[in-house]
Structures are given as C-alpha cells and as structure tokens.
Design brief:
The protein is an alpha/beta fold. It is built from 9 helices and 8 strands. It has a single domain (32-313), classed as Rossmann fold, CATH 3.40.50.720. Strands 3-2-1-4-5-6-7-8 form an 8-stranded mixed β-sheet, sandwiched between helices. The chain is globular. Bound molecules: NADPH dihydro-nicotinamide-adenine-dinucleotide phosphate. The site of NADPH dihydro-nicotinamide-adenine-dinucleotide phosphate has 31 residues, from helix 2 and helix 5.
Length: 315
C-alpha cells in the first residue's frame, strides 16, 4: 500500500472510530425493547473483563442476568457489587471445560427459571502477549475456547425458552479468527474455501481442522503449515468458533416461528483486560458494547453473522 493510500485508510479508520464512539453513547430506544425483567441472560466468564461488562450492561437494560463464573466465590463477590447498584443479577458456578459443571449448570437453570432466553459465550483464554507466539498451551486453548463453547451451546440449546422474539446466542470471538483477514490469514486455500462456504461447514470439518492443528503442534510441524501467524493457537480456536457459529445457525434455521434461536459472533476489539495484560485501545465497557447491541437487536435478528463496532463484518 502506498503512502497516500495508507493515510486515507488511517483517516477512514479514525472517522469510523469517531462514529462508533458516538453510537455507543446512544442508548437502545425504549420502543425497540422486546425484553422484560423476566428475560434471562447467561454470560459465561462474567467475573471480570468483557464478560463482567456485558453482564452489567444487560442488567442495566433491565434483563435478569446470570453471571456464570468458574470460581464460585469470585462470581458471588462481583455479583454482589452489581446487586448493590440495584441490578438484577445472580451468580452461579460454571466451568465450560468441565462436562459435569456444564450439566449441573443447565439443570440449575431449568429448576430455577424453566430455561433461558440469551446465552453469551464470553469465557476464553489466551496465553500469549505482544509478539509472543508460544503453542505450549495449545491443547488447553482449543479445549476452552472452542470445545468448551461448543459444549455449553449443545447443552443449553435444549433449554432455551420458546419466544416470539427468538432466543439468542452470542459467541465472543476475535477478528484474529477470520479466514481471509488482511493479517493472520489462513494459508491453505482449500480449507479457506471450505470454511467460507456454508454448505461445506460441518462439525467434522471444524473438529478435523483443530485436530490437525493439535497433531502438528505435537509433532512439531505446525509452523510450516500455513496457520494464522499471530497467537496461532488462539486464532485457530476462534476460527473454529466462527465456523461453528455458522454451522449452528444453519442447523437451527428450520425452526418454526416462536422457537427460533439466533446465533452470531462478534469481536470486541483490542480491549484492556487481564487477557491483553491491560494493553489495547478500548475499555471493557467499550468492548462489551457491540455484544450487547447484537443480543438486544429487535425481532428478526440476523443469524450466522460476525459483528464488530456495531456492524456486520466478513468471516
Ligand atoms: P479475561 O481474561 O479478562 O476474562 C476471561 C474470562 O473467561 C474470565 O472470567 C475467566 O475466568 C473466564 N474463563 C476462562 N476459562 C474459563 C472456563 N474454562 N470456564 C469458565 N470461565 C472461564 O479476558 P477478556 O475479558 O479480555 O476476554 C473475554 C472474551 O473476549 C474471550 O473470549 C476473549 O477471547 C475475547 N476477546 C478479547 C479481546 C481483548 O482484546 N481483550 C479481543 C478479542 C476477543 P477466571 O477469572 O476464573 O480466569
């Protein structure tokens, strides 16, 4: 890219950031509110960072929020701070890497609420910072970010409440998991094409991709095989989450009116949280904004889409 083109791109980006910061100040109009204080939203990994902020903002809009945290005590403590501010939240233990914890969470939800309306899959891990790219914890990263997200989705879908506005699932993902991003591009053109063609996306394809990656990590060949270059294990996990979002959207698309479930994913941007070592250009409050906007979209919400900065972006 030439110098002039770079300057123009920078200007466009700055203008967009200005627009989005104005948009974030606009509260959702009361006319568009389809939810009530009986609407139940679950946010995973809600004890800190972006998850805490999504929970806080949803509760501020008047929903009942279950703040799911893997450490029950920490979860209780943060929920209390929001309850003291008058918000309608409660905490419950949930470790998405643990099948027993996920099943017991789902049973508790059914027993206490009869089901849920919104699931925000925010829980996630990443062990690299800055220019690091260690794959030491690749197995754990894939297990939590992809397999854990899949586990909770599979368990919760059957307990999502029928509603004329449609139940909603939101996966907190990352632009690092884009198939065709300008940076961090997936090298294998065949895999790229499959991941971008809805009819080709299957659980076998996604599971096969992460299994291939982990096998190459084990035998030391991953570097030569065209995986995303930055935070490789994390990026592969989010590539998988994005593809899984599209797959589930397609599988749910035949549900009749009144039983619809909309599923989307979004990138919060580069956010100052523990995960980034508090680096980044956005606060957790700003990072949560698009996620809250997506799950609260009025009836006939889009589904199977990827969002950032309050607009759709490409996979
Ligand atoms: P944080 O590290 O601050 O928070 C991560 C949360 O996930 C914590 O509450 C953590 O719990 C929880 N968690 C981790 N593993 C599990 C598990 N097995 N079961 C349940 N909860 C778990 O990170 P962020 O707030 O920055 O990240 C939130 C999401 O946003 C993640 O999915 C991340 O990938 C995504 N994201 C973040 C970006 C950023 O710039 N920060 C950019 C793009 C995406 P505990 O406190 O117990 O560790």
């Amino acid at each position: 890219m030439g110098k002039k083109a770079k300057e123009r791109a920078k200007e466009r980006r700055e203008k967009r950031l200005q627009q989005i910061s104005e948009l974030r100040k606009v509260p959702i109009s009361p006319r568009l509110r389809w939810w009530s204080s009986d609407t139940v939203a679950v946010v995973t990994g809600a004890n800190r960072g972006i998850g805490f902020e999504i929970a806080r903002q949803l509760a501020s809009y008047g929903l009942h929020v279950i703040m799911a945290s893997r450490d029950a005590e920490r979860g209780r403590h943060v929920a209390e701070t929001l309850q003291n501010d008058g918000l309608n939240v409660i905490s419950h233990q949930l470790d998405i890497s643990d099948q027993i914890s996920v099943e017991s969470f789902s049973k508790w939800v059914v027993l206490n609420y009869g089901g849920i309306d919104i699931l925000v899959n925010n829980a996630g891990i990443n062990f690299n910072l800055g220019s690091e790219n260690s794959i030491e914890f690749a197995g754990k990263v894939i297990e939590t970010n992809y397999v854990g997200t899949k586990r909770i989705i599979e368990t919760i879908i059957p307990v999502m409440k029928p509603s004329e506005n449609g139940a909603r699932i939101l996966n907190v993902s990352s632009r690092l998991g884009r198939v065709n991003g300008r940076r961090n591009r997936l090298g294998d053109p065949t895999l790229r094409e499959k991941l971008l063609t809805d009819d080709h996306i299957s659980e076998e394809l996604i599971d096969g991709m992460v299994a291939d990656f982990l096998k190459q990590v084990r035998d030391g060949t991953w570097k030569a095989n065209g995986w995303p270059q930055m935070f490789t294990d994390y990026s592969v996990s989010k590539l998988a989450v994005n593809a899984y979002t599209r797959l589930i959207s397609r599988l749910l698309s035949s549900r009749p009116e009144g039983h619809r479930i909309y599923i989307n994913c979004y990138c919060p941007g580069w956010v100052k949280t523990a995960m980034t070592g508090w680096e980044g250009n956005l606060s957790a409050e700003e990072g949560a904004d698009t996620g809250v906007w997506v799950v609260l979209l009025p009836n006939q919400s889009p589904t199977g889409k990827f969002f950032a900065e309050r607009r759709e972006i490409s996979f």
